[in-house]
Specification:
- By secondary structure, this protein is of the alpha+beta class.
- It folds into 2 domains: 135 residues, Diaminopimelate Epimerase, Chain A, domain 1; 157 residues, Diaminopimelate Epimerase, Chain A, domain 1 (Roll).
- The chain is built from 7 helices and 18 strands.
- It has an 18-stranded mixed beta sheet that branches.
- α1 links the parallel β2 and β3.
- The termini are close together.
Amino acid sequence: MRAVVELDVLKLDVFTDDLYAGNPAWVVFGADTLEDILMQRTASELGGPEVAFVLKSKKADVRLRYFAGDTEEPISGHCTIGALWALAEQNAFGSSFGGRHRAETPLGILPFSVELNPGGSRTVWMAQKRPLYSRVDEITEVASAMGVGAESIFHKEFPLSKVSTGVPTLLVPMRSMDALERVSPRQEELLQLFRELEVAAAVAYAWGGFDETTTLHARCFLPSPVFHEDPASGVPAGALAAYLVEHDLIPKEKAEHMVIEQGHFIGRPSKIHVRVEKRGSSVRKVEVGGSVRQSVKGRISLP
């Protein structure tokens, strides 16, 4: 009879200071002995939507794998932030702060750092890949897929774009918060647009938000594991911030630290913090961070 393996698990609310807000993420520790099929089944049982598995790495400080149901994902921003925060709480990266560390992911090696806040909490800052940009001209098609009229899109001042800092993302500027609230995607049209534009996320955004400290409010729609609106999207938020800084569409003093709201329209309010460094005419560094709250702690038994 095979021995039963018991592993520690946490459920975390990421990109929020409040319980039952932000983007929920499961983290499974000590997953080095688990085969892929068992990771898939574990993720499915935990109910995700996304689960990060923590493993040892020969290339970095830690290795992370991500499963959404029975599908392995190349990256999950909120799962990464959550898993690294949990490890930092266990002093897995030492007791000092501010140093550079590295996480091995299916997308490659991602640098990260852990900072201590004045109140004693920790913030993990995850570096993203150098941004890649391309313009999108299908304004009518995008508006229809998002369920709004073309006049609701701020496309002349802020051109529609496809940007990737790890996940190819369609960026759709809306004229106001009211216009952003009216976004109601036509699922089949948007999924077809994902395929045609070869993107994995669509972000509609507007200036301002519900909090006076907010730079932007965003709504992110993802095609997998099933089509849904995401409460907080770390990698797409980095793409959005990089695009605005690269094209000088945001004041320089705001570019150094942006706060992007998300999730309010689906009852999971979130705040994603983004730092962008521009040297000369190009963005050189994009970092995403945020707060984390633990909501569940336990152990699971696996065959």
